[in-house]
Amino acid sequence: MKNRNLSYIDLFAGAGGWSVGFDLAEFENVQMYDINSSACETAEFNFGQVVKCCDLSSHKNFEFPAVDIVIGSPPCQGFSNEGGKRIDDPRNSLVWVFMDIIEKIRPQFWVFENVPGFKRSYKGKFSQEMAKRLNSSGYQWRDYIFDSANFGVPQHRKRFFIFGCRDFLPTPPILTHNSDAGLFEGESFVSLWDAISDLPIPTLGDRVGEFLYSNSPQSKYQKLIRRESTKLYNHTAQKHSKRVLEKIKAVPVGGNMTALVNTYKENVVKYEGGYRRATKDRPSYTAYWTRGMTSIHPEQDRFLTPRECARVQSFPDKFIFKGNTIENYTQICNSVPPLLSFSIAKSIKEQIMACREVSSLGKKLIASY
Predict the structure, then answer these.
(1) How far from 1 is each of 5, 7, 26, 130, 356, CA to CA, in Å?
(2) pLDDT for position 79
(3) How far is 105 from 65, CA to CA, in rounded Å?
(4) Is the predicted pLDDT of residue 269 greater than 80, yes or no?
(5) Residue 1: band (very low, low, confident or very high) from pLDDT cuts 50, 70, 90
(6) Full-model pTM
(7) What secondary structure letter does DSSP report for 260?
(8) What residue numbers bound the domain in which 96 lies?
(9) Diameter of the chain by CA atoms?
(10) Percent over 70 (pLDDT), the chain
């Protein structure tokens, strides 16, 4: 038992951001579940036959494996600031599917992830119901909001997490990065340029996106992300229309849709996630794909490629995304950043192992009397 790798399943797994981090922390990946066929294709290509492409709303008909940990990210669209929110969005009910599966499997530890809006949306209805359910579940739990930049991911991405454990009150992972390493312990934030400066300039309209590396790694982060990779994939750039290109050129570094509002008839309001040009020397904006857009490159007049978004999310270059370019953007930007997942996985392992050591010591002491 002592040398056995801790096992997990990944619910609403998407392309597998959670699983990249847990595998890196040497957990045993028993099963991944998702309904999206292109995400499942990507996950199966990278993880093998552990992927089950299915609708988890039919979970009552499933037999789930017994595992130590369950991780998962039920759809967040109904709680997000982007787009219209409806309390009756059927995707919202999938948070209860997640909890049903937890109660069915009864793992030692589990982690739930969603957008920060989960806690406040609909006057807190879902978070209050969740708290009530958790308080009677037999699990000790805490909730947190983490910014991925604090864990070595080159973007500011705040997300809501709940940690639950049967045997002890869970604690959060230690923050490893901050805005000024001279004032605090740890390293400085990883900037956007730390993440993507070594990548070749893509051709607009290229749908292949395969490149040999033309430069050596320019940063510690690039060395890490290029490990075990000899070639770049998914570095495809959109062929922008004249009108879109005109808008992109109008946005200054660090700017956003404010530069476009009332200049174009279709842009009468500013909305988050629209036409934002990233700044090189800071962590990127949150990786997003909305209304056919992601962040604008800081030097080139184009949106970031899927591979650049993958770098921003901390996916290793050896991780290849399947499907078309739009599906690639969606898979990447909907994922939990692997380096954040890795930090959480390491923390969970340390807590479980410490608990087991205490339990073992207690049994030895009792036996000695």
Answers:
(1) 9, 12, 15, 33, 10
(2) 59
(3) 8
(4) no
(5) very low
(6) 0.93
(7) T
(8) 7-180+338-362
(9) 82
(10) 91
CATH of the domain at 148: 3.40.50.150
pLDDT of 264 above 80: yes
| Residue 168, token pair as written in the block | 């002890």
User: In this structure, is residue 24 part of a structural domain?
Assistant: yes
CA distance 222 to 321: 19
In a domain? residue 153: yes
DSSP string of 287-324?
Answer: P--BTTB-PBPSSSSSBPPHHHHHHHHT--TT----S-
- What does the pLDDT read at residue 268? 77
Instruction: Specify the pLDDT at position 90.
Output: 61
| Catalytic residue annotation | 76
CB neighbour burial string for 215-234, b if at least 16 within 10 angstroms, e if fewer: eeeebebbeebbeeeeebbb
Number of domains in the chain: 1
Mean pLDDT of 121-134: 87
Does residue 94 belong to any structural domain of this protein? yes
Which residue is associated with the tokens 């919202």?
92
Statement: residue 3 has pLDDT above 60:
no
Any idea which residue has 């739009």 for tokens? 326
List all residues 6 or more positions away from 130 whose beta carbon is below 8 Å from its beta carbon.
Answer: 95, 99, 162
What pLDDT shows up at residue 128? 92
Residue 139 falls within a domain, yes or no?
yes
Backbone φ and ψ of 71, nearest 5°? -120, 155
